[in-house]
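F.,

This is the one I mentioned.
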C-alpha cells in the first residue's frame, strides 16, 4: 500500500526455470512474475495488504523448520525462502477441493494471509488436530498429515467432498476463522432471487 523513496522495485519471473514458473502459475494460480523490493542508499519500508479480509501472519523459517501453506495464503517472503512446486501436495492436489499446498523452506521470513482471523494451535509430539480443509491455512513441515473424507455418504452428497486433514505434531497449525465457500454460498442466497426474477 505504500513504500519509502529508498525502495527499488524490480519485476522478475517467480521461478528460475520455465517449468517451475508454469507449474506455480497453473496449479497455484499465482502470477508468472514477482516484484522484488530492495532498500537502496538507506533504510526503507514497504507495506503489503492481502486480498481477503483478514489477518497477516509472519512466519520465521530456518533450515530445520519450514511450512506447508495454502497456495492462496502466500503474500510475500524474503529472498532465501524457497517455494517448492515439485512437492506432491502441490502437483497432485492431495488436499482436494481445489486446495493446493505449497511447501516453503529455507532461511528467512514468510508472510501469509487468511480470510478472517488466524487461530494458531501448537501441537505436541503425537497430538492430532482435525481441520476442515477450507479453514486450513498452514502447518509446520515437522507435522505429519493425512487427508480423508469426513462423515458418511449423506454428508458428502449434501456438503460437497467433505474432506478434512488430520495434522499430527510436533508443530504449529494455522487455521482461518472464515472460509470463502461459506461466504459465496451466503451471497448466493441473497442474489439468487434477483437472478431468477430477471431470468423470467
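My design for it:
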Amino acid at each position: 500500500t505504500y513504500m519509502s523513496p529508498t525502495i527499488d522495485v524490480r519485476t522478475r519471473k517467480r521461478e528460475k526455470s520455465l517449468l517451475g514458473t508454469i507449474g506455480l502459475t497453473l496449479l497455484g494460480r499465482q502470477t508468472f512474475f514477482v516484484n522484488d523490493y530492495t532498500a537502496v542508499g538507506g533504510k526503507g519500508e514497504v507495506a503489503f495488504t492481502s486480498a481477503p479480509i483478514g489477518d497477516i501472519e509472519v512466519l520465521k523459517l530456518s533450515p530445520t523448520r519450514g511450512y506447508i501453506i495454502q497456495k492462496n495464503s502466500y503474500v510475500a517472503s524474503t529472498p532465501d525462502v524457497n517455494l517448492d512446486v515439485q512437492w506432491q501436495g502441490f502437483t497432485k492436489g492431495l488436499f482436494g477441493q481445489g486446495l493446493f499446498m505449497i511447501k516453503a523452506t529455507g532461511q528467512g521470513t514468510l508472510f501469509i494471509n487468511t480470510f478472517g482471523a488466524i487461530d494458531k494451535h501448537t501441537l505436541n509430539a503425537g497430538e492430532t488436530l482435525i481441520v476442515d480443509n477450507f479453514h486450513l491455512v498452514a502447518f509446520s513441515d515437522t507435522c505429519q498429515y493425512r487427508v480423508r473424507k469426513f462423515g458418511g455418504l449423506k454428508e458428502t452428497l449434501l456438503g460437497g467432498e467433505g474432506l478434512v486433514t488430520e495434522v499430527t505434531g510436533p508443530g504449529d497449525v494455522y487455521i482461518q476463522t472464515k472460509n470463502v465457500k461459506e461466504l459465496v454460498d451466503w451471497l448466493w442466497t441473497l442474489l439468487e432471487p434477483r437472478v431468477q426474477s430477471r431470468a423470467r
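Helices lie at 18-28, 88-91, 153-159, 180-199.

Talk soon.
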